[in-house]
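Methods, example record. To illustrate the input and output format used throughout this study, we show the complete record for Glycosyltransferase family 2 protein. The sequence lines were provided to the predictor; the line carrying structure tokens was produced by it.
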Amino acid sequence: MTEQAPDVSVVIAVHDTMPYLTACLESLVGQSIGRQRMEVVAVDDGSSDGSTEELARYAAAHPGLFRTVRQPASGGPARPTNRGTELARGRYLLYLGSDDWLGPEALERMVDAADRWESDVLIPKQVGEHGRVVPQGIFERTAEHVGFTDSALAWALGDTKLFRRDLVTRHGLRRREDLVIHSDQPFTLGALLHARKVSVLADYDYYHLVLRRDRSNVTHRAGPMDRLRGFTAAHEVLDRSTLPGPARDAVRARYFSWDVPQLLQAPFLDEPPAVQRRIVQEIGRFTERHCPPAVFRALPVPARLRLALARRGELHALCDLIAWEQDHGEATPVRRGSRLYAHYPMFRDRRLALPDALFEVGPAPGPPGWRRLVPAPLRRARRAVKRALRRARRDGLAAALRGAVR
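The corresponding predicted structure is encoded as:
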């Protein structure tokens, strides 16, 4: 008789995550779904801190629940995650960080909801531990069906989700093993774009993402160039799988309003000049290729300024901007005519000659000062008189008087 496949396979890539690994494994042992409906596939990527022994201890204590394999260290999570995916037998796949953990009812609730809704991808509510920041926009409500244009889906591109295994295998979705970081983003983006239905569960703390106390998570150790390679890979998937339009723009807006400008914050100033020049050059190319004007115009002013300076190769001005913000924060708006502009030091700087549009915050909120008390018709009449006076000065008082006599 053929052994029945489990409902869900939890895939864990493990590399030197003690003591956090213990809490991760313990959260799986206590899942309410029952061991007959789940399996844990743990791939030990050359650990040397006791993680190997901890996996063996749990596998021995819970026979049939854990499947563990060991391989030489690969330098990133992509290769062990790919191998775990190949070994998994469940109808659904859940990718769990080896320093993260699940709520006791997480798997049962997720599988039941995905079956009920026939979801291809299901996003469970995630919370941060030990100061880990997790964007919460996508978790505003439980929803059977969400997309890039009606939710914060573009901000949820990590692989911390439940995926229908058939979706992954049918489309040949894999992590790119040449990426040190963000290999999950192009994978997840491909799954979301191919999915017939993406759902959200926001009714329970399903997935607890942990920031290690020494901040040694790979997502906090990777450098700017590694991150840019991950962003580029995600945009290659986006270009292949979408046509120009709102969904594509929503994903682009996420990267250019947050991910890319984050590479040009205070730590950038500590990089050697040669590295700074390379980062600026690559960001400029990336922006030129992937950030269309409509997306660029809608970005916050600090992001627009950083990207524009990078495209122009203005390294010194970029460093000055970052240092100025460190001391002053974001610039306060200043009114010029009917518009508000962020009053950065380079606003209307003659040498840089940056267009005012880069600094524009939006329309000024009504007339300033005494103008609030003057009715609109009188303001229009006053403007007409001022225009007439300017014409008089331009054409000469005599000519203006001759015109009046006629």
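Annotations derived from this record:
The mean pLDDT is 92.
The CA atoms of residues 147 and 185 lie 16 Å apart.
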